[in-house]
Amino acid sequence: MAIRIAIGCHSYLLGEGLKKLFNKEDGIDIICIFDEGIDIEEIIKMNPDLILSDFEIFRAFPEDSTIDKKLKILLLGDNSWLSDVERQIPEFIVRGVFGIIPADADSEILKKAIKVVYSGELWLDRKMIKKIITKMGTSEKRIGLTKKEKEIILLICHGYRNKEIAQKLDISEQTVKSHCNRIFKKVGVSDRLQLALYTHKVWPGHI
Fold this sequence. Notes:
Number of helices: 12
Number of strands: 5
Structural class: alpha/beta
Radius of gyration: 18 Å
Strand order of the largest sheet: 2-1-3-4-5
Shape: globular
CATH topology of the largest domain: Rossmann fold
Helix content: 40-55%
Number of domains: 2
Distance between the termini: 41 Å
């Protein structure tokens, strides 16, 4: 079944360009393009699986809009706001954002992010996650994360599944599962999304 995507861009031409990018992509169906002034509730009634939106459009979404938990939002970033978005990530996630694409990402990254977000995983820029991991400081020491556990957290937040993590770190999938269980127990969370929220919570500047 194809992933049903609604594209929201303040520049309709950009939205059309994105639609053309996916025209020949198997498994992706662009159901509509919308810009400012469109009622988000009307878009939701079209039953998209994912909203691909730039920040200008997302910022106009009513904070109390009824967004089904199955509907996920993937934000298209740009250099004008990425420096400020870091503090807002937990709020964004609560509002349905499952991923943020940096301004310098290419089309292949975008396609991969769509599939990762659709599967229910979180997608964040690797550089952004590295900043979070390296700045965990006092909180990291308090819970005693090992180097391997930090590497796994980084990969989890970047959307990798256990099998992919095992391949990247050259360890067994069962070992990854064991590490994940220990990480969840140390941090006090029950799933990957909560782990990502924790990672941002301990980030200096948002404590």
